[in-house]
Amino acid sequence: MQFKYYNITNQNRRGGIFLSNIIFKDAKITKPEDNQPEQIKKIFPYISPVEKGDIVAIKIHPGEYGNTTHIRPVIARTVVDLVLEAGGIPFVTDTTTLYKGMKLNAPDLIKGASMNGFTHASMNAPFIVADGLRGGDGKEIEINGEALGSITVASAIADADSMIVISHGKGHPASGFGGAVKHLGMGCLDRAGKIKVHEVGRPTIDPKKCTQCGDCVEICPWGAITPPEIDHTKCCGELSCADACQQEAIIPPPDATDKMQKRLGEASLGPIKALNGRIGYINWVYDLTPGCDCFNFSGERFVEDIGILAGRDPVAIDSATIDLINGRMKPDGKSIYNVWGVNPWVHIEAAEKIGCGSREYKLVS
User: Fold this and answer.
1) Is there a domain that residue 67 lies in?
2) 234 and 178 in one domain?
3) Domain limits at 226?
4) What DSSP string describes 9-45?
């Protein structure tokens, strides 16, 4: 059974299909009164699910320390202030990760976010780790997908009354593109949920290539690797070990990327269902680097800035974002697929199929 997604935005009908309105503010606008905070102030009333008295999660990715192209604290602050004006009680939030870095546990995540400028003083709201001290705080949500029957959503998100998801549109080595759907289907999950999405990527080691250098052992936080063996009862399938292997001895399953993306798309229904669809989405599409904000560095942009998109349908907003990116890349004969050789429509279509939204949209200014 598909979950009927909640969308209060004005819609348009084309050939029997309802089109979600996606608001687009082009980065090429240069008037002082059209700076990014002012654009968000104009957009917010059309996408806000906030009711007076709501406890409102504002989901961001604060970036690993060393990354400088994540969304800026001023963007989060603008949304916080708008939630307060609407009578909501906001908190800014993110979840722990499966890889080593400054997001593996709550204290490090809060420290890393602070180092990148995301503090109570800068945002006018507390920063809360949604899945608890070690990522184990979640609520199981039934989604009845083809690959996933249920998924576990971080408790602080599942327990909120409504949510604003602010996504940095960019490339991603596993999903091709990272936007609203990935923020839902990965960033809003607890550790168990993330493992459910990633477990199809559990790799093996080619003993002929393995030099037992120990790089993979060092990078794995779960103690799953004793070269040339990987203990799949401990391995999460996150594959940072494969990225760390200079000998290319760690081999993921050949269909891992597509299977992971399909699970990612289905998992995005979890937060939507937990919050009864009371979610607004902002895609901040500047500094389009190939890598995710979880990289501890920022690579060169692969296309010029696009702007800000906003709506109430995560599938539509990501579809519009990808289409705009591809439009800017088209003169060079390329698309976002060429960044990593990964087709992002796999997870977008999986999210559409399970009922998170529609790829049909109409851009409005």
Assistant:
1) yes
2) no
3) 203-251
4) S-EEEETTEEEEEEEEEETT---GGGSHHHHHHHHHH
One domain, residues 246 and 260: no
Strand blocks (E) in the chain: 11-14, 17-26, 55-59, 89-94, 127-129, 138-142, 150-154, 162-168, 170-172, 176-178, 204-205, 225-226, 229-230, 250-251, 279-285, 307-311, 361-364
Same domain, 101 and 162: yes
Contact 265, 52 (CB under 8 A): no
Q: Convert the pLDDT of each residue in 9-60 to its tens digit.
A: 444 444 444 579 999 999 997 788 889 999 999 999 999 999 999 999 999 9
pLDDT for 84-120, tens place per residue? Answer: 999 999 999 999 999 999 999 999 999 999 999 999 9
Rounded distance, CA 299 to CA 248, Å? 22
Q: What is the CATH number of the domain that holds 334?
A: 3.40.50.11440
